[in-house]
Amino acid sequence: xxxxxxxxxxxxxxxxxxxxxxxxxxxxxxxxxxxxxxxxxxxxxxxxxxxxxxxxxxxxxxxxxxxxxxxxxxxxxxxxxxxxxxxxxxxxxxxxxxxxxxxxxxxxxxxxxxxxxxxxxxxxxxxxxxxxxxxxxxxxxxxxxxxxxxxxxxxxxxxxxxxxxxxxxxxxxxxxxxxxxxxxxxxxxxxxxxxxxxxxxxxxxxxxxxxxxxxxxxxxxxxxxxxxxxxxxxxxxxxxxxxxxxxxxxxxxxxxxxxxxxxxxxxxxxxxxxxxxxxxxxxxxxxxxxxxxxxxxxxxxxxxxxxxxxxxxxxxxxxxxxxxxxxxxxxxxxxxxxxxxxxxxxxxxxxxxxxx
Length: 356
What we know:
By secondary structure, the chain is an alpha/beta fold. The protein has helices at residues 86-95, 109-117, 141-150, 164-174, 186-203, 215-226, 277-284, 289-309, 327-341; strands at 7-10, 74-80, 99-102, 125-129, 155-161, 206-209, 235-242, 253-256, 314-321, 345-350.
């Protein structure tokens, strides 16, 4: 690959780390101390795929006959130094709609691409995290890349780089050994890893130096490369709840509807919920209800723009009243409809409705 095709970025600041692992997914293991280190692994599921139709064009080089050239998914291989931010980069692509597989043995990458091609367009973009944690499997990467090239698979390699000082600080801050240090020091493991990755780094299409980047800055760089012209999507959960049952622990924003009269004290409305038209009409005929909806929706537009800039793709908006049956339910439904009309992917959850 020509030098002018490679990209390298470097900025100033300090890259923090996050830890955590989902032990239920294939390839899950103890994570390296890198920015946003919660991995985005998913299990690849096979699909026998449709049979070739008469007149359908197929790839002459594909090992699996009947796969149209146009069905071959786009592929990104994420690699780089342990602690440099691979998991954060993978999570960013997952939030952008990519199918992400963490710590996949390189020999299985062509198989993963074939399965994606057979998904009838359901898996159009695949991201695979590959690194030295695969130990002996890493040696198969060069062969797998050659196989992909022979099948005309469009692939890009993203390499996460970082200085020795930054990597040492990150490993020491979580008191974990480098995966290659063995009985030596952290710097020994870093040196060994650099040597193993030297050739792959030279083949990378995009090199990102995270030495001085924080999590949000790294996500911004990934968004700039892979989000395209469209702004990354924000997904919202609007949850009604009752204060007497406790605040939702996963709420990002909480609004209190107890400033509105309670339909519970209206005998003919008490048996119903905020999903009932008469109850909703009663709630929104109260002074301040419609004003609140308009102004809160406007405030959420401002907050949503900031969330996107900071790399936050999911938000939970909790709307509460006393029992989570009338006012909060009615307001949650109206607010969710307002957000959906503005292009926000929205889910409504009524946590406490029916508990009385």
